[in-house]
Amino acid sequence: MNEIDNTVIKLTEEYTSAMLKDYHSLHRIPELSFQEYETTEYIRKRLEEMDIQILDYGLETGVAGYLEGSGSGPCIGLRADIDGLPVSETKRETGEEGFVLSEHPGIMHACGHDTHMASLLGAARVLIRMREQINGSVKFLFQPAEEVSRGSTYMIDRGVLQNPKVDMLFGLHNAPSIPTGTVGVRKGPLMAAVINFEIRIRGTGGHGALPHTTRDPIVCAAAVIQSVQTIVSRSIDPFHPAVVSICSIQGGQGMTNVTPDTVTMKGTARAFHEEDMDQIRRRMDQIVTGTAEAYGCTAELDFPLDLGATGSEQLYDLALDAAGAVAEPVDPPASMAGEDFAFYQDTGIPTFFYFLGIRNEAKGCIYPLHSPRYLADPDCLPIGAGIYALSVFRGIDYIRSTKA
Ligand code: NI
Question: 40 CA to middle of ligand 1, Å?
Fold first, then answer.
């Protein structure tokens, strides 16, 4: 345990009550993706109070803060997402002092992004006190709209990774699957790659009693639904996790005797290996196009979201070391959920993504992400702040040592 680690731990303890206040304040005011105005204002005010510079990238929601250390060196980015979900928080007594339920009807921080924000604000408080020890700079990225997987692209397109250039980026997500006091550090993919797809099958509608005069897109759609289930069972290595789910199907106007012209379907596919995602794309195209042809229909297939897996190997040792200084590192179960953090990873900068344990059975913090009863154990906050802050120091050391 070196001096930097000791100072970080001491300061995260000192700022625990400030982090709790931020967490409670932000939990009250959850906002939906790209509508995080109050949240943005709250973060901006806290950063300004700390004398953290706000960088202007023309962000409608979201904030980029900047802290220059005492010496010149690389710029380390720290990312927290800030949006809530359209979930109505269950009214209940949590027994947690100072905890207030969501005051925005029908919206809730059910994915715990409030814990990410409070941890990153805590890290900012710690790092500003340690400015003299930072040979480089820190960019604090409070990102909107993670839940719709579009916030990171929004930030990247507005240039948040430039001016100054971010050399390395860290992020975290709270994890109800692992206990408070642990941090999930995984070598390789932690969260799945995601393809969302839309299929449109066009036939020729007509009278349901005269099928020979139609080209029925509903029967064709049924064949497509059955066939895409063979992608995972027949075309993917059984030792590789993968999912293909059709979650929406629409065709017809509720009539018993009218065959429609078109059927549309929507769904999602997940896997961890890029070659599996390639295979899913290729097989979906073959099945949709080929089946449509066999049934005398035509088809279109679109991928409105194509997101890589989150998690990398390059910074594993560094991350394990940082996590071990403030918590117990564990190898967490991977998640089939996606994370738009992958778009930062795709730009080619070295990144690492942690899971922050929040499970605490005694406090009722046992519900999964997106549940209306979801609750984080606030004891995760100093650990989250510590992970963010130590990633800065470890990251700067890593870049210096690899350049030397
Ligand atoms: Ni989330």
Answer: 17
**Eight-class DSSP state of 109:** -
d(CA 181, CA 105): 32
pLDDT confidence tier of residue 38, bands split at 50, 70 and 90: very high
Are the C-beta atoms of residues 250 and 264 closer than 8 Å to each other? yes
Q: What is the 146 CA–ligand 1 centroid distance (Å)?
A: 7
Tokens of 278: 């390639």
Query: Which bin fits 198, alpha (ψ -120 to 50), beta or left (φ > 0)?
Result: beta
Q: How far is the CA of 340 from the centre of ligand 1 (A)?
A: 9
The angle formed by the CA atoms of residues 26, 27 and 30, to the nearest 5 degrees, is 80
Give the N- to C-terminal CA distance of the chain in Å, as an integer: 24
Distance of CA 174 from the midpoint of ligand 1 (Å): 8
Cα of 399 from ligand 1 centre, angstroms: 29
> What is the average per-residue pLDDT within 161-171?
98
Q: How far, in Å, from the CA of 366 to the mean position of ligand 1?
A: 16
- Please, which pLDDT band fits residue 403 given cuts at 50, 70 and 90? confident
Instruction: Return the H-helix or E-strand segment holding 194.
Output: strand 193-202
Give the integer Cα–Cα distance in Å for 31 and 38.
Answer: 8
CA of 224 to the centre of ligand 1 (A): 32
Q: What is the DSSP letter of 290?
A: H
Distance from residue 82's CA to the centre of ligand 1 (Å): 9
Give pLDDT, residue 404: 62
Mean pLDDT of all residues in 86-94: 94
pLDDT over threshold 80, residue 254: yes
Helices and strands of the chain, counted as H and E runs: 10, 14
